[in-house]
Amino acid sequence: MYQEERIQAILKYLNNHKRISIEEICNLCNVSRDTARRDLVKLEKRKDILRTRGGALLPSIKTEIKSYKDRLFTDSEVKKSIGKLAASLIKENDKIIMDTSTTVQTCSEFINVDTCTIITNSINQADILSNKSQKIRVHLLGGELNKEQRLLYGPPVISMLSNYYVDKLFIGSCGLSGKGIMTVFDEDGFVKKKMIEQAEEVILLCDSSKFGKEGFFRVADLSKIDILITDKLPDKSLLDIFNNYKIKIILTK
């Protein structure tokens, strides 16, 4: 079977099952694991798939498959207003976890305390924070690097997280619905899950364009959110759900 024939077979499988593993490609196309990986690399370059640890998935919302840089400049003014407001909640000596969300990155840019400790798996966040006060301690979680999304992930990241207990978690989302906090990338989703477990207070930074959207992977249900910082209120049905979970909503001005 030629590579293009294998690629079509992989895409057909994905259209039916939404995800595929390396082992399934080997069985489907009768090829080695190395050949299966090369096929996934080509599909990833064509932006037809999202690669995951051990395979690939077919995204449910293709418009959300953007590089970190592209996401950073999408609705950038709204993100800045949310990030600035979030930064105002950080107090001296706070212990904080920050995820890899581009909105959370803007929070890093506006931090205005002299002393705090921040844990993150975002190489962009670590770079920004390195230019802040010398008394701001930064712990960069180590793991496998997703170059396009600028994040570190995998079992080492989750293992390191289990050693930290913090006052606040600042987390982003690609979608927020009655089903909970959603993300496109499952490898990032597992890290976010662990971050939530380690925080006393979970603060979600999410602009109104994400309301009602559902990604591939559910990070957590709404009961895990303490504070939502956003630019507009959702429609009544979703707002009622937020109120039922006693989520405090803070709006930008």
TrEMBL record:
The keyword Zinc does not apply. The keyword Lipid metabolism does not apply. Keywords: DNA-binding, Transcription, Transcription regulation. It holds the Pfam family HTH_DeoR. Residues 3-58 form the HTH deoR-type domain. PANTHER family: HTH-TYPE TRANSCRIPTIONAL REGULATOR SRLR-RELATED, HTH-TYPE TRANSCRIPTIONAL REPRESSOR GLCR. This is Transcriptional regulator GlcR.
